[in-house]
Amino acid sequence: THSAMPLLGAGQPAVAAAWEQLRPLSPPTASQCRRLRCGLGLTTALPLPTLGVLPLQQTATALRLRRFPEGRHRCVRRAALATQITPIEEKKKAVTQYLEKVGGKSSLEGVVNALRKQGITKAFVKQHFKFQPGVKAPKDVQGYYDQVLLPEDETVLDYEKELKIKQVAKRVFELGGAADLHDVTGRIGISKKVLLSHDNGKLFEVVGTELRLAGGAFAVAAAAAAARTVTAQPGRRKARSDLFTSAGKPTDPAAARRLLWRIEGFLVSTGDGVMNLQAVYAALGLKACHSLRRWIKRTRLKITSYGDLRVDDGRLNYFRVRRAISVGALLAENGGALPLSTILVHVHRPPELTALEQEEIDFAFCTQQAPRVKPPGGGIPHPDYVPSSSSTAVQSRAHSVGNESFALAISNPPPWVEEWVKEYFSVKDGLVTFPPEPVKQPLIRRPDAPPEPGIDEERAHLMSVSEEIRLRYGRAHSSVLSGCFGVKTKWLKRFFDITENGDALAKSVQRQTSEAIMISKRIAASTKGYTDDEAFTEFGATNAWLAAFFDVDKDGTLNFDNDSVKAWDPPPENPAPSPWTYAKLDVPRGYHRKGVAGKYMPRKYGHNAVGILY
């Protein structure tokens, strides 16, 4: 009987081990199933939580177990079913992991469908998680836009708000105590109301459209910015006179721009666009370091795998054409003829480069309250720099430029300068003059030939053809252009280069240089003025190209451009749209939705959606 059955104490090891393994099962099932007890090595029944169970039920259960196969009795099935029931905490953990995986927010239908096998229902999700009902869903698909979010922790929200306020205070202090309110709040993602309410309004104040530090912090930040002890650029500095931070960001954009122009001018005038990197460092008084190299990589300069520093191809072409026009202007001022030595010095030491070097020297010796920012190594030596015996090992190393050593190339014009002058100008008996006029075949027109199109009509055709070539990434076959726009190959040769295969390309730098020299000759020889219409008719020069290299008056008269700043700033290029950015639309995830009834839902776009990035 039940009363005579020996009971094991709860503190015995055998009973404790049995209950640990049978914890998912209900206590009556674990105690009454003989096969489960035999599998655990127990010889007696486990104690029941209540003593109201009749002994007859235990006897009947034992008899029924003998007539069913192993594992087929309903008690065994009930125990197996009990082990499959997922607790509430495990369900909440599964939903939390899913929401974290998809970004913290998902639709209610998405959560339920993804976790259906784990017993997740809509009622469970609405009960234990943050739920936002949809308000813009159509009537036939209600609930499609219902959102489920992770519960927000107030401690985490307060910490994130304090962190953003510290970021705003640091940013405003680095900018001198005042910054644009819209830019700061939009960049860091915090509202104006939160900033002004922090610390009872003792930290920030708004003056017009500026966000300022309140109290004496504004004066301290302004003094720190004036003394260059702080900077808004990322990275670190060893001293407040450093021009670049450790991340390669300039602390003084004007000084960094002048240094870039000096490097480009030195490369173009001495090495024709490319020189050894260490040679450039030695000539300009620079020191090789990580900050300088990172800044070079951020600019338009390129460091090759051979250790050379070169100018970008587009800017190099601009400098070469500008060099030819400068020589033409010098010839026009001196009657059309000059000694070769004078031209060589002019090309090797252009006037805009010497003016820039003199400006750097003036800045170096100018006394100011704030210290002058310096590049790594100090900068400024170049004018006629010659390495001495006291120079460092890097500076005294011989760097070959053409056929001469680095020291001779600095002090004297390199050989390539004379070869360039003889290629584009006439040199006879040591005198340099303009090249002779090209021989043109006379144009014979038939009596029944149609009239020639006007300049405006030709410019309209040229704009269409140029845009087509640009969209085709700078190359288009002449037959395609003739069929699309009705132009002839002879007309195309006026404005483009035609290859052996019949492809139309932009004019090469050699052709642009020759045409620029001939236009300079026309300007020097003309008494009434040479106009842009004449340059368009004779050389196929567009208005944009003429405006980049010459000074164009309101009436279209061309003059030589003596602007030194314009000599370093070529017009921006207009490349074809990149296939990687053109096809990438700024659209959020799920903008193209399909409803449950087979209908497409209203599309939802982001702030800058479908923006073509060119």
Question: Can you walk through the features of this model?
Answer:
This protein is mainly α. The protein is built from 28 helices and 17 strands. The strands form six sheets. It has a three-stranded antiparallel beta sheet. Strands 4-6-5 form a three-stranded antiparallel beta sheet. Helix 16 packs parallel to helix 25. The radius of gyration is 41 Å and the shape is extended. The model is unreliable at 1-11, 21-32, 35-54, 56-68, 388-404 and 610-614 (pLDDT under 50).
In short:
This protein is mainly alpha-helical and 614 residues long.
Can you tag this structure with a few keywords?
28 helices, disordered N terminus, extended, three-stranded antiparallel sheet, single chain, 17 strands, disordered C terminus
Average of pLDDT: 77
Summed up, the helix count is 28
- β-sheet strand percentage: 5-15%
**Biggest sheet, open or closed, and with what strands and sense?**
3 strands, antiparallel
Low-confidence stretches: 1-11, 21-32, 35-54, 56-68, 388-404, 610-614
Structural class estimated from helices and strands: mainly alpha
Question: Layout of helices and strands, plus pairs?
Answer:
Layout: H1 13-21, H2 27-32, H3 34-39, H4 55-65, H5 74-84, H6 88-101, E1 105-107, H7 108-114, H8 122-128, E2 130-132, E3 147-149, H9 154-174, E4 178-180, H10 181-188, H11 192-197, E5 204-207, E6 210-213, H12 217-226, H13 253-271, E7 274-276, H14 277-283, H15 290-298, E8 302-303, E9 308-310, H16 313-333, E10 337-339, H17 340-348, H18 351-364, H19 393-396, H20 406-411, H21 415-424, E11 426-428, E12 431-433, H22 455-471, E13 476-477, H23 478-485, H24 489-495, E14 497-498, E15 503-505, H25 509-525, H26 532-539, H27 543-549, E16 550-552, E17 558-560, H28 579-582
Antiparallel strand pairs: 1-3, 2-3, 4-6, 5-6, 7-9, 8-9, 10-12, 11-12, 13-15, 14-15, 16-17
Helix pairs in contact: 13-18, 16-25
